[in-house]
Structure prediction request, 69 residues.
Amino acid sequence: MAFVKTDENEPLEKAIKRFKRMVEKEGIIREWKSRQYFEKPSSIQNKLNKANERKQMKKVRKMHASKAY
Prediction:
């Protein structure tokens, strides 16, 4: 749980900013830098499949390179 101790003469805006940074740092709430959007499950699956293919091809290239010596 995040909390912020404030001084008597500290402006409220400054304390709120400090609190926001602390909460974001702890991972309680995440601020998205870009706009959030909905992504179809099929496009998510396609991305995962392509990433797995790239990993597999990299593994195959490594194996072939090591057998050449």
In short: The radius of gyration is 23 Å. The chain has a mean pLDDT of 85. Helices lie at 12-26, 41-68. Residues 10 and 60 are 60 Å apart (CA to CA).
